[in-house]
Amino acid sequence: METGISVERAIELIQTHTKPVGTEQIPAARAHGRVLAADVRSPMDQPPWPRSPLDGYALRSEDTKTVPVKLRVVDTIYAGGWSEKIVGAGECVRLMTGAPIPKGCDCVIRQEDTDLGTDEVLIQKPLQHYENYCFAGEDFKLGDTLLPKGTRLSGNAYGVLAAAGLLREDELLTVYKPVRCAVLCTGDELVPNTVRPLPKGKIYSSNEAVLSARLLELGIEIATVQGEFSDDPQKLVDAIRKATEDADVILTTGGVSVGAKDILHETLPLLNAERIFWRVKLKPGTPLMFSLFEGTPILSLSGNPFAASATFELFARPLLGKLAGCADLEARIVEAPLATPFEKYGKGRRFVRAVLENGRVTLPKGHSSGQLASSIGTNCLAEIPPSDAPIETGTMVRVWIL
Ligand code: AMP
Ligand code: MG
Questions:
Q1: Residue 350 parent element (H or E)
Q2: What is the CATH number of the domain that holds 41?
Q3: 183 lies in which domain range?
């Protein structure tokens, strides 16, 4: 087991010990939000033929070398129509936006640049070869990779599938199976919201609520074994065993520090789970632990509500991304200057909740890892670098956009 490792090393270890969940083949109509496990190639050109981008006349540009010139209108084509005419010298075809450009023509003139003639049309302006001409396959060509492996199927992806004629029950897409995650919270002090009045010494568990909501937002399914558990290692052993029947991954909160009731240290050996690492050099959530139980990854987060939430964003997302086969589950990282100073400096890296707005980072009051309410309205995590003096306004920090 590695210990006292960097954030980057922890993510690397998580990802090297995690395999994507299996794949399945389903029709696109039932694949919304799923991630492609194989490239989708186009069975056709789009558009299938050269088409007009505007209402006007299709003609031969060489006929406009000397203007003004009158051309004979030999046909009219609307969108959805077709003409077998081969347009010759001195001829043109009246056509509308989206109509196929007939053979012989290499450009289209806007109707505003003509006298709108019906039998004969007056052209005042010379046209270039392929002016106002949409080529067949301009959007995509037969055999092109339309959607690469790893694409999450959403609005535009559906549009592309439909444009290529692939939104059919008999056209199956190879997608990753949905990832199912169990959330297990430890702590003798925790009670669910069904308990009222709140007994002395107890608090309502909030971690499960935060993590479950975030999982759903990221397109992850919630496994059936859920809930708050005591600080009894045997109960957690049973819950983890049960969870692995249904879940691809398990998140636990609490019990990973060095206190007398930090039961993960007892639970994992009882399960014969392989501990990959414990303790990461960051605040909050230092005692992060990652293990494998019969191949199922278990990420154990510190119980403090903000620590659990921040380490979920930093570590669970790369884990879920690897399982789901999709890099877009990871937070995007940018750099931006602090718009407020930060007094709580220290030797280690610290992640704080923050608001990124207009390219600047504002920090709310209330950084303690036991506080949750100050997270409301924040939209990112800002990384406060190690320092031996307070961090000044204007300092550039890395920002994980949530
Ligand atoms: P632990 O990581 O178990 O040492 O817990 C650290 C702190 O977080 C303690 O104050 C716990 O009461 C609190 N805590 C642990 N789990 C939860 C939870 N599910 N919901 C809210 N607070 C929690
Ligand atoms: Mg605890």
A1: strand 350-357
A2: 3.90.105.10
A3: 2-21+178-329
Distance (Å, whole) CA 152 – CA 175: 9
Residue 23 in contact with ligand 1 by CB distance below 6 A: no
Quickly count: other Cβ atoms within 10 Å of residue 290's Cβ.
24
From the number of C-beta atoms within 10 Å of its C-beta (0-12, 13-18, 19+), residue 332 rates as: exposed
132 found inside a domain? no
- Residue nearest to ligand 1 atom 8, measured at CA: 304
- From the list 286, 241, 231, 218, the residue with the least C-alpha distance to 264 is 231
| Stretch (H or E) spanning 137 | none
CA distance 270 to 240: 11
pLDDT tens sequence across 257-316: 999 889 999 999 999 999 999 999 999 999 999 999 999 999 999 999 999 999 999 999
* Structural tokens at position 143: 């055999």
Q: Is 267 in the pocket of ligand 1 (CB under 6 A)?
A: no
Q: What is the pTM of this model?
A: 0.87
Let me know whether 272 and 350 are in one domain: no
